[in-house]
Amino acid sequence: MDYTFEILPTQILSEFKSSEMINPLSSLETLKSNGLSDYEYAAAISAAYSASCEREEIDPKKFADWVKKGEEKAPEEYVDAFSIYKAYLHIKDRKMDREGANEVHAILAGPHLPKVYHGEIRTNPLFVVDRNDKIEYTACDVKKCEDELGKFYRDLEALENEDMNATEQAYMAASMHLVFHKIQPYHNLNMPIARLIEKWYMMSIFGEELIALPLEKNYYDQEHIYQRARRKVGKDYYNLNYARSSAFFALAAEAY
Q1: Which string of b and e fits 136-163 if b means at least 16 CB within 10 Å?
Q2: What is the pLDDT of residues 161-194, one digit of tens each?
Q3: What's the whole-model pTM score?
């Protein structure tokens, strides 16, 4: 790759490329549709696993069966999963640039935040807490969010002109996920968006069938590793060391 990235880390790229992979199209899960389109069904499964990463235990197949009913309002236990599902439908024909990410945040934030905050960069400090409500990470300072997001989206734009193989593309997708998580640009719901950005990037390269790639399932099934791997990179935005991100990229590689 010729471009010098402003914020996406490349420290683990050579290690990642040594993995025995990558053919993302061969890693797609075979999903038995329940009457939804293949894309809708895979989006429902992905959304259920992504929501389950956020302290919600949701049965993916039961959620997909509920989606099939076509109801406009979700029961309480499916509110977040349904919002994530709608976001996956939204990205099918949408570029995840700054505007696209804001639109996705507005979809996810609908049930939780007043409309004035939908798609708006946070104006307060943000701390990520673990399941025991202990602070595990201090996010980017609010005064620097715009600058860091600028770097992030410039890197994404530059990737369009890079000549990469499938392994490098998968690495950059996971990098987007990790960096977006570390910036934490919105008031809430940053992690579902980080996972969505990773999947969107792979879909933009290999086609919409990549919606069935089991990324979210892999992160949920190995949630403790997923959390530890993110923490290992650093507990404060200004003291991050992406050279310590091997465990995160190894986990991402498993899904491919």
Answers
A1: ebbbbeeeebeebbeebbebbebbeeee
A2: 999 988 999 999 999 999 999 999 999 999 999 9
A3: 0.93
Q: Is 228 helix (H, G, I), strand (E, B) or coil?
A: helix
Which 3 state secondary structure label does DSSP give 16? helix
According to DSSP, residue 137 is labeled: E
**Cα–Cα distance between 185 and 121 in angstroms, integer?**
6
**Residue 236 vs residues 21, 136, 205: alpha-carbon distances, Å:** 32, 9, 32
Does the pLDDT value for residue 31 go beyond 80? no
- According to the 3-state scheme, what is the secondary structure of 78-129? HHHHHHHHHHHHHHHHCCCCHHHHHHHHHHHHCCCCCHHHCCCECCCCCEEE
124-147 pLDDT, tens digit per residue, is: 999 988 778 888 899 999 999 999
Q: What is the DSSP string of 155-197?
A: HHHHHTT----HHHHHHHHHHHHHHHHHH--BSS-HHHHHHHH
- Cβ-count burial of 249 within 10 angstroms (0-12 exposed, 13-18 middle, 19+ buried)? buried
Amino acid at 35: G
- Provide the Cα torsion 169, 203, 249, 152; round to 10°: 80
Per-residue pLDDT band for 104 (boundaries 50, 70, 90) equals very high
Q: CA separation (Å) from 198 to 63, 119, 250?
A: 22, 19, 15
